[in-house]
């Protein structure tokens, strides 16, 4: 009988050093896409790991890209009748000496997050995911917070 391994989540806490946001709009050249327009607006957050301890002690950098998607807005999610169960909301992958993260974001929440970043109120991103395997992990959830709370740390890696 095969035993299923219980995976405990790991917190990957990133201290926000700087952020950037860009916007683009145009005609959509992809034929199989329903929308005749293409809109690009990604939030980039860069910083150093504050947790797990090993990544923090080595001053490892993180480059996180939050990609707004209107399909993730609350109204659309509540109307979705599909049985689709997502595996995660993003991924974190190690490159040479830093990590790159690609993370989904409900489109409706971008404006409040940008307002808080402009006001310098948000200081940390807490990514909850699996233990790193082959320098990659799936991100199951995240929080963007004003402070690093030790109680928010899920486990030590």
User: SSE string, helix = H, strand = E?
Assistant: EEHEHEEHEE
The tally of strands reads 7
As for the number of domains, it is 1
**Roughly what is the average pLDDT, rounded to an integer?**
86
What spatial order of strands do you see in the largest sheet?
1-2-3-5-4-7-6
Main sheet, how many strands, which sense, barrel? 7 strands, mixed, barrel
Percent strand: over 45%
Taken from the alpha-carbon principal axes, the silhouette is globular
How helical, in percent, are the residues? 10-25%
Using only CA atoms, what is the Rg? 17 Å
What structural class is derived from the secondary structure elements? mainly beta
Given the structure, what is the number of helices? 3
Q: Unreliable segments (pLDDT under 50, ≥5 consecutive)?
A: none
* Ends apart, CA distance between termini: 29 Å
Structure description:
The protein has 157 residues and is mainly β. The chain has one domain. Helices cover 13% and strands 46% of the residues. The protein is built from three helices and seven strands. The chain has helices at 53-57, 74-79, 110-118, and strands at 10-27, 37-51, 61-69, 90-94, 98-106, 124-129, 136-145. It has a seven-stranded mixed barrel with strand order 1-2-3-5-4-7-6. β4 (90-94) and β5 (98-106) form a beta hairpin. The radius of gyration is 17 Å and the shape is globular. It starts with 9 loop residues before the first strand and ends in a 12-residue tail after the last strand. The model has no long low-confidence stretch (mean pLDDT 86).
């Amino acid at each position: 009988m095969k035993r299923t391994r219980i995976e405990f989540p790991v917190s990957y806490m990133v201290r926000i050093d700087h952020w950037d946001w860009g916007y683009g709009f145009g005609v959509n050249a992809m034929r199989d896409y329903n929308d005749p327009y293409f809109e690009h607006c990604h939030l980039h957050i860069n910083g150093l790991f504050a947790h797990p301890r090993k990544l923090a002690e080595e001053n490892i950098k993180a480059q996180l890209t939050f990609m707004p998607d209107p399909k993730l807005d609350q109204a659309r999610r509540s109307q979705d009748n599909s049985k689709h169960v997502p595996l995660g909301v993003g991924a974190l992958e190690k490159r040479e000496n830093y990590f790159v993260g690609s993370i989904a974001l409900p489109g409706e929440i971008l404006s409040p997050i940008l307002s808080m970043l402009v006001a310098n109120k948000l200081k940390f991103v807490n990514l909850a995911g699996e233990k790193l395997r082959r320098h990659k992990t799936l991100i199951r959830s995240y929080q963007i917070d004003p402070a690093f709370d030790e109680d928010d740390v899920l486990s030590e890696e």
